[in-house]
Structure formats: C-alpha cells, structure tokens
Amino acid sequence: xxxxIRRPITGGNWPVDARCSHSPGAGYxxxxxxxxxxxxxxxxxxxLEIVHGRGDLYWxxxxxxxxxxxxxxxxxTFLNLTGMAHYDISSAYLITYEVFGPRxxxxxxxxxxxxxxxxxxxxxxxxxLAAYGAVCRTCQDILTAQHGFHAFLAAGAFASLAFYVSRxxxxxxxxxxxxx
Length: 180
Prior knowledge:
7 helices
C-alpha cells in the first residue's frame, strides 16, 4: 500500500515508497510533479484572465508590494495613506483574491512570468527576463571572483532565492539583497 505525506506548499502529496524516491536514477513520479505544475498553470491562466478582463496592464503597480518591503513598515504605511488593499499592489494577492475572494484560506501565489506579464505585457516579459538574466550573471561573476566580502554576501543573498524565483514576484529577491 502506498502512503503519502501531505505537502502543504503545493497542496499535493509526496508518495513515499521505493518506486517514487528521489534517489539518483529513481526519476520523478507524476504525483510529485503534477501539483506544482497545476498550481503554476492556475496562476498563469488566472493572471491572463485578470489582465484581459480588465483590458489594460498594471504598469508596475503590482510590484509595489515587494519594492515597499525594502522599507520597514513601508507597505502598511503606503496602504494606509492610499486606501489601497494588498491585492492592488501584489500579483500574488490579486490572483488569490480573484480565486478565493476577500477571505482566502490559502494562496496560489504567483509566478515570475505572469507577474511580469500582468505589469508590462509580452514585451515586458522579454525585456525584464533578459535584465534578470544579466543580474543573475553579474551575481555569478561576483560569487566566483574576489569583489570583497560585502559584495559576496549581497550576491549570495540574491542567489539563495534562485530556486524560489520561478514561483515568486519579479522583485522577490530585492529585500534580502538590499538588507544584506
């Protein structure tokens, strides 16, 4: 019999038996990959639906959450001064709000591609991801060369979130990078 451990991040199950282990050569089970792909597809299609239903892009407004996170209490202060809600300044909150309503029990989050698309469309995806690639290349160069300890720490903070960025916002790495 197959047993499973609930995986709260993606809402799926991790199968626990010899055939589905993640040891070298074991391969990946569809039960392991499917929930993550399904959540990414939901965020992608919901984000497209939001933009096309609205008839316009957000022109950077959905990046305010991560940009303001650099300043302690920046988000809360901004929201109090403008009267906006969290879903007005974050693609992850907006997608979750559109799926689950004003009192969500969970969150779908966002993905890098739909986050950029919701703000700047197809051209924005190409330009922003090219710029992101250049920043990643610079961080790689800093990590492999001697540019001083502070530069190494900042690049390390940026690189440490590289696995998360595909399911995060474009500026998700900004706060740890700046605070380092």
